[in-house]
Amino acid sequence: MKHAYVFPGQGSQFPGMGKNHYDQSAFAKRLFEQGNEIVGFRLSDIMFQGSESDLKQTNVTQPAVFMHSVIAYKSVDGAKPEMVAGHSLGEFSALVANGVLSFEDGLHLVIVRAEAMQKACITNPGTMAAVLALDDEVVEKICLELQKETGEVLVPANYNCPGQLVVSGSLKGVELGCERLKAAGARRAVLLPVGGAFHSPLMEPAREELAAAIEKTTFYNPTCPVYQNVVARAVMDKEEIKKNLIDQLTGPVRWTQSVMAMIANDGSNFTEIGPGKVLQGLINKIDKNVTTSGVD
Questions:
Q1: Rg, Å, the chain Cα set
Q2: Among residues 21, 87, 108, 199, which one is catalytic?
Q3: Which residues of the chain have pLDDT under 50?
Q4: How far is CA 231 from the centre of its chain?
Q5: What does the pLDDT read at residue 152?
Q6: 11-28, pLDDT tens digit by residue?
Q7: What is residue 56's predicted lDDT score, i.e. its pLDDT?
Q8: 68 catalytically annotated
Q9: Partners of 293 in beta bridges
Q10: Catalytic one among 44, 88, 170, 200?
Q11: Domains (ranges, CATH) in the chain?
């Protein structure tokens, strides 16, 4: 039986996130101040006092969730994960937890990623939609057929849990996709309040920037496996970890498959580190027999 640490991604943020750590721990306060210097503005002030709309800006959200998650992790006494994973952005936090990245380098990469994704959103406008109560295979087939017929972009983006899949693509592609998905029996196919088509080919302009930054960054050998989004299996080779981080920008988050792979490899106790409880809920829907807990 193994202990897994999992880290949330963009969308888990909330006003006031991390303030308890800042107020109660001198160690956490130093890390927050170090993070503020790296991002170049008082990110912690936005996290503690900003509004929900402030926290939804990609260049704020991504470093904020990363900082909160890593600082929460480093505040856990005796934390020794036997396997780690992160949902989208959370993969960078997971790579700090298993020793592949330093806090500083991880934050630098997250900043590059956020800014590159924001520019890609402007270059290639798009959106995402949550699809409920429809088999993954049906969603995949509809996405493929729509792309062939219309030339619009529509792809599966987040395999969150059985019966919950997020699709991503062009504005028209997602609009048409929602109509077809509901006609095919989806209980809901609803647009999400996001700024772009994340985890789709429309993020291609961001790949080059992130790849260049990753190649300049020191990656260390992991202390335990990371179950990466795009391959949904344990990875220990740092060169493959780099490749998968880059591919994640345009590839799907296979969260359901990743959690199932962790369970198959004796993962039984999952601790979510970071803001919110989103991953705990998803994991319980994937397998109700595992134990989940959280540190925020």
A1: 18
A2: 199
A3: none
A4: 14
A5: 98
A6: 899 999 999 989 999 999
A7: 84
A8: no
A9: 271
A10: 88
A11: 2-121+201-295 (3.40.366.10), 125-191 (3.30.70.250)
